[in-house]
Design brief:
Layout (H helix, E strand, L loop, with lengths): L2 H22 L4 E2 L4 H5 L1 H19 L5 E8 L5 E8 L5 E9 L2 E7 L5 E3 L3
Parallel strand pairs: 1-2
Antiparallel strand pairs: 2-3, 3-4, 4-5, 5-6
Length: 119
């Protein structure tokens, strides 16, 4: 196989594995184009996964989240999360404090609920 064909084959394989990893992601996560989004990329990933699992656990496994945004803050463990659940026009706005991969504290600013640890 010549060099060009080998390079094309490699690019295709890498592209296929990348697209399959994105296809496995349960949710499309949006972040603002600010420096904290890059600095806190790991926190954004951990918090979006935790919030997704939390919402599904409390809304039913068939719930569909859309317009999902994660806004990092200056605090290395805290983000704001905004999403819409299902086809309802109501948006949710959460303040989420993380402890590793688990939610330490979650506050839904669209309700009066404050949920502490053990989520």
């Amino acid at each position: 196989m010549n060099r060009l064909a080998s390079a094309v084959m490699t690019a295709l394989l890498v592209g296929m594995s990348a697209s399959s990893s994105f296809a496995a992601a349960p949710l499309s996560v949006n972040t603002p184009a600010i420096s904290q989004s890059k600095t806190h990329a790991d926190l954004i990933t951990r918090s979006s996964n935790a919030v997704y699992e939390y919402v599904l656990a409390h809304s039913g496994s068939t719930a569909r989240l859309s317009d999902f945004w994660v806004f990092p803050t200056a605090d290395a463990n805290t983000v704001f999360v905004r999403y819409t659940l299902g086809d309802l026009p109501a948006e949710h706005l959460l303040v989420v404090e993380m402890d590793g991969t688990r939610i330490a504290r979650l506050r839904d600013l669209t309700t009066t609920d404050i949920i502490e640890a053990d989520l």
